[in-house]
Input
Amino acid sequence: MWQKVTTFMGEVRTEFTRVIWPTRTELVNSTTIVIVFSIAFAIFIGLFDLVLSYVRSILLAI
Output
């Protein structure tokens, strides 16, 4: 059992050396893009919901 754990940890260490880690600039840019698109999508969904609620209220008032 101990041999399997040791082998696994060695393989994990080897894989971590193969990972291409992003630079700080790439990380900040990617995070900014995700946050901006999330906010834009939330605004779009909110406005869409507002329009549908308005249309529903008009249809139910008839």
